Amino acid sequence: MSRVGKLPIPIPTGVTVDISGANVTVKGPKGELKRSIPGEMRVAMEGSNLIVTRPSDNKKHRAFHGLTRSLLANMVQGVSKGFEKTLDIVGVGYRAEKTGDKLTLRLGLSNHVEVKPMPGITLAVEGTSKIKVSGINKEDVGQMAAEIRALRVPDHYKGKGIRYTGEKVHIKPGKAGKVVGRK
Questions:
Q1: What domains sit in the chain, N to C, each tagged with a CATH number?
Q2: What are the backbone dihedrals phi and psi of residue 99, each rounded to the nearest 5 degrees, phi first?
Q3: Rounded CA gap, 54 and 157, in Å?
Q4: What dihedral angle (degrees, nearest 10) is formed by the CA atoms of 43, 44, 48, 49?
Q5: Max alpha carbon distance in the chain (Å)?
Q6: pTM higher than the cut 0.85
Q7: Which of 77, 85, 68, 163 is nearest to 123 (CA)?
Q8: What is the pLDDT of residues 20-73, one digit of tens each?
């Protein structure tokens, strides 16, 4: 039995789950998410918990068991609490500004870079060097944060660029060159 798949998913108050065949709809205070799950997996409500079961110990069924449970748990958490990723901008002259719903980034390039958020994603700027990406769909939040980070990946020689908060960037030593005074 999958250690992840056999865990029940607690449904908080204010969240409703509608199961119709292979389609699951989760509604909560932050919004609504829909997902189609693999047809072999069975999802059932038992009290205030959501239970995912598999039909057999087939390798394919075991693989989908934990995945289905994790996806449903993320849906429940997303509509109740939401998800958030924070990015830090490091570098002299690098900054972020919010203009309307778009994000304008100055990253040492010849032109400013404008980033338009995906549907359901909100972008916020704290100061000039912190970007918060938030939304109810964990996959979309991670994708949007990754796209912003990809605009200027952290440099391993100077450390400049966009990085996730808490991400450690290993700074490489540069060329040693000749030692002064020796021939």
A1: 9-80 (3.90.930.12), 83-164 (3.90.930.12)
A2: -125, 105
A3: 49
A4: -40
A5: 82
A6: yes
A7: 85
A8: 988 999 999 999 999 999 878 999 999 999 999 999 988 889 889 999 999 999
Tokens of 124: 């916020």
Cβ-in-10-Å burial (0-12, 13-18, 19+) of 110 comes to exposed
59 φ, ψ to 5°? -55, -40
- CB contact set of 17 (below 8 Å; sequence gap of 6+): 11, 24, 25, 26, 45, 50, 76
- The per-residue DSSP string of 138-170 comes to HHHHHHHHHHHHHTSPPPTTT--EEEETT---P
If you ran DSSP here, which 8-state letter would residue 13 be given?
Answer: T
* pLDDT above 80 for 180: no
For residue 19, what is the enclosing H or E element? strand 16-20
Backbone angles phi, psi at 4, to 5 degrees: -80, -45
Q: Which 8-state DSSP code applies to residue 69?
A: H
